[in-house]
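MarR family winged helix-turn-helix transcriptional regulator
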Amino acid sequence: MSDNGPWLSDEQQTAWRAYIEVRQRLDTHLYRHLQRDFGLSGADYEVLVNLSESAAGRMRAFELGEMTRWEKSRLSHHIKRMEQRGLVRREACAGSRFPDIVLTDEGWDAIRTAAPKHAANVRAFFGEGVGDERLDVFAAACKGIVAAIDEHERTSCPLEDSDDR
């Protein structure tokens, strides 16, 4: 610990609060554009991106849960809502009692339509905000944070194993 005892140093506190503000504001702003321009929530977009980047636009539910880091109930409820809107469907998977989650034609259309504008917004608000000269440093810092979390989960607080594999 630092000289501040259990508290953050002034520099850590400033950086932490800046991170909280940028995370909240960037997410809100980007998701507002997705909703307004394409009728997609941030969660919809996350599911669509993961499915569109997978083999044949399909994933087993537990894999999608790992990619999104969502709890099983949240994923199940959200997939149900997306099914009702025609963006995805559940499809039986040979050799498994759990279905695959599959992009429908409407889901493919939604991600193909939204992705270019979303990428442009990310570039404008995130990429230009960080600046090309700082992207490597920013990426390294983020990877360091993820590595620290991974190590903590591996050694001190392992995640529960999923039973839907």
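thats it. The chain has six helices and three strands. The longest helix spans residues 10-38. bye
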